[in-house]
Amino acid sequence: MKKYIAQLTLLSALAGCGYKQQSATAQKPVATDSVGKLVPVVITDTVTHDTDDPAIWINPADASKSLIVGTDKDVNGALYVFDLEGKVVNKVANLKRPNNVDIAYGLLLGGKPVDIAVVTERKTHKLRIFSLPDMKAVDNGGIPVFEGETTADYRDLMGIALYTSPAKEIYAIVGRKTGPTDGTYLWQYLLTDDGSGKVKATLKRKFGKYSGKKEIESIAADNELGYIYYADEGAGVHKYYADPAKGNHELAFFGTRDFAEDVEGISIYKTGAGTGYILVSDQQANKFNVYKREGSAENHNEHTVIASIPFSTLESDGSEVTNVNLNKRFPKGLFVAMTNGKTFHYYDWRDIESRIVSK
Description:
Layout lengths: L8 H6 L5 E4 L5 E4 L9 E2 L7 E7 L9 E6 L4 E6 L5 E8 L2 E12 L2 E10 L4 E7 L10 E2 L12 E8 L5 E7 L9 E8 L5 E9 L8 E7 L4 E6 L3 E6 L10 E3 L8 E8 L5 E7 L4 E6 L12 E6 L8 E4 L11 E6 L3 E6 H9 L2
């Protein structure tokens, strides 16, 4: 997990560091610091305790009014909501160590489609679910998960990914602080209306190999291609089918030699129906490793690193990305990552893309 080290002082200098402009494309110079790390175009307001994981909500009426939802991880933690300028515009307080958050669109509640943010609340062993953009609770106070587990830390929630199937069913794939090594580390729940306009969760499967080395936190879902990826921190990245009906066999295990230490935040940037990039945080190296979303030409489940990009984030273990044109600052999308120092960093996707293309 994140180590609070002397590098924290870097954050206070970023805003005035005098970016070195390196022209990677004819359209836009790339913002880097003096040692070549990508620097953010926006740094958010600070949270009270400890940023951990962000998610992006795209406003369907006006993309420029989209929001970033991020966790403040503490026993008296919160969900913060930021605008595209990094300003706090809303907050859900009194959450008991909220860890990771993800967003899905159009869950039918009371007969109406509702966008939702789902956060793992570690100390209560519950999922907390809030409607977007108003951040109103729609979970009857929380939904218990990993029920029946009695081993220490087996119910302490960490990772969350929401998968939307072709039939528009929304599933929550949930991880915990530690768990068994028998292939049942992750539990997958179907989210539906409980009959009163609130959310209920029905367990559909238990799956997922675990090395036993550290923990599994970051989980990501590729809705269009139907895959789940998750970071086994001391080992690598696992890949499975997202649809429970397709079975629990592992499709790929990659990145086993690509990281200095912990394998962390996973984000998926889409360039086409089946193409794009998977970005994975090399936490202690302060880099993000990049893999092709579509795999290799010979095997779509073969993922080899194609770029390793240094970022100004410090010990990042949570990130998210979108390819949507949000505004003039983020015309090809936004990448957001947590960093030590109680903030989130927003990056212009064009800066990241230039580093991938140049490899």
